[in-house]
Amino acid sequence: MQDKRIKETTIPRFVNEGTPTLAGIIALFATIILVLFVVKAASTSNTSLATEATLELSWTNSDGTQSSGVVVVELYDDDAPIHVENFGILAENGDYDGTVFHRIISNFMMQGGDFTNGDGSGGYAGKFFGYCDGQEADSASDCTMSSYTVPDEADNGRNHAPYALSMAKTSAAHTGGSQFFIVDGDGNGAPHLDGVHTVFGEVTSGFEHIDAITALCDTPPKQPKTCPNDKTPQDVVLESVTTNMEDDSWWKFW
User: Fold this and answer.
1) Residue 247: Cβ within 10 Å count
2) 188-240, pLDDT tens digit by residue?
3) What's the rounded Cα separation, in Å, for the pair 219 and 211?
């Protein structure tokens, strides 16, 4: 009768006389990788959000000289998680890079984020958040990507204080997409927008750059408006936006 027992040589030895074999070393390495993967998967949330964004800006001063600066923004990931996620996605995709602040009103705010048209008529959310042009929808297939909007989180208790970062939208609910604005540092902010527009961050560094840009549209007494149609004579450019959103790739264990 044929011997059907498993021979010793069928299963490679991991240790030979107290010394790990090549098979043993490979098995140990594979085990370590597996353990690290399990630990990473258990400790990492799929909804990890950014808590900070860095905006690089460039503009032309009233005297024709060129300036640039970096503005750092704290993001309210707890109070406006949907807006922060949306902002992070658009930043990661590079959608904001090279866009302009198309609307600047002295003592009020500077608005940008229209990455499709550049004039305030375009832009859309970074992914489907359950709304198409402000209307609740069941599926992303209910509308085209250009109609994606985000639900309001305006009742989060955050106010439009000076240097606040807020979502631009129409007068209708849930119509924010990609456009945002930063409240001018002068005065008392924009309290009339509280509870209507969603504040999802605030400037923590680079205040002087916000001041310099909004001052471009200051109009001297009895003089024609410096910024006709609320736009600077030369573009104020948002060169890039980066965030500290973690890369949760499974193969990164540190």
Assistant:
1) 7
2) 999 999 999 999 999 999 999 999 999 999 988 878 888 999 999 999 999 99
3) 14
If one counts every other C-beta atom within 10 angstroms of the C-beta of residue 75, the result is 25
Other beta carbons within 10 Å of 139: 9
Count of CB atoms situated within 10 Å of the CB of 85: 23
Tokens at residue 107, please?
A: 């003592």
Which amino acid, 155? D
**CB distance 189 to 203 below 8 Å:** no
> Considering only CA atoms, which of 148, 161, 173 is closest in space to residue 203?
161
Burial profile 170-202: b = 16 or more Cβ within 10 angstroms, e = fewer? eeeebbbbbbbbbbbbeeebbeebbbebbbbbb
73 touches 53 (CB < 8 A):
yes
pTM recorded for the entire structure: 0.79
The letter for the amino acid at 123 is: G
